[in-house]
Design goal:
Layout (H helix, E strand, L loop, with lengths): L13 E3 L5 E3 L1 H13 L2 H8 L3 H15 L4 E4 L3 E4 L1 H33 L8 E6 L3 H11 L5 E6 L2 H9 L5 E7 L4 H8 L8 E15 L20 E4 L4 H12 L13 E2 L2 H9 L5 E5 H6 L3 E15 L6 H10 L2 H8 L4 E2 L6 E2 L1 H4 L11
Parallel strand pairs: 5-6, 5-7, 9-10, 9-11
Antiparallel strand pairs: 1-2, 3-4, 7-12, 8-11, 8-12, 8-13, 8-14
Helix pairs in contact: 1-2, 4-9, 5-12
Amino acid sequence: MSYKFQARLNAAWSLEAPDGTAFALDDILRLLSAIETTGNISGACRDCGLSYRHAWGLLRRAELVFETALLDTNRRQGTRLTDFARHLLWAHRRTEARLEPTLQSLSSELQEAIESLYPQHRPRLRLHASHGFAVEGLVQQAGSNDVLTIELRYRTATEALASLNRNECDLAGFQVPAGEFQAPILAHYSPWLDPDRHCLIYLAQRDTGMFVQPDNPRNIHDIADLVKPGVRFVNRQVGSSTRLLVGLMLQRLGIDPVQVNGYDTSEFTHLAIAAHIASGMADVGIGVETAAWRCGLAFIPLAKERYYFAVNQDSLSSPRMQALLALLNGEPYRQFVAGLVGYDAGHMGRVMTLDEAFPDTLPPGGKR
């Protein structure tokens, strides 16, 4: 007997009064998001599966709790969210984006704990990787079949590669930009990459760049504009590959990071960066194009990054690794990644040596 369900952990908002009574916000946040998308309450009710009467009851109760209006209704312009409602919704989206990696990692741990209680269960592949849309989709697709279970831990690229060297994971996800920054990024990774021990599985190429408001009010066009007066930047967390890339780009221009307003303000995912900007808390951040698109932001391309899984060469023939390669080379997952804005699924699933991936680039300081 094997366990065929997938563990899921989700965050839920509620407001608690001094007397201990609580007002759950899940339904009202879902309704506000649908109103923002459809521009009217009727369409939002259909999207949320709520009756018109119940939806109005939720709105009126929420307005009493917050002591302010949530909707602005105009016959010509339809129904719009008030500034309060928009900021409430973006606060929720930022929180979800921040918590997502933690909740997914905890869900994976819970899944492992439950499956271990059964005498027979699917092969388990331990993946350590930074948060990304293709990785997220891979775990979901693996969970939908009876062939492979992926145990996911979100880590920075260097943490993931170090885990692989300690045999704490089977796959370590990391990304490398094409062009002038490939060599210094690889120099950073080289202590954990051994051409005699490791090989790579190619996942995808993705476009990385700057996120700005749709009308680009700060007139931001390249990295040099981060030091413009009044421009507020939001960075990725310390140790992330994106933050390392930003530092290298500033270094090339002779810009000290202390000159960038907000350089030490950080978020843990691409989507959290985008939500931070969409909510008006910053003017610009850097991440994968998919996140900008999902939050309705403009995108200014800076680099093309190739995402790889580093693996031990002697593990490639194992049933669980073969199951992974079959998933990567299957049409459903390939179509999923190709459908992500800013992603290119060409060469997905290709196994290569470090020299094949980076000819003459891995520095002498790396393991040989």
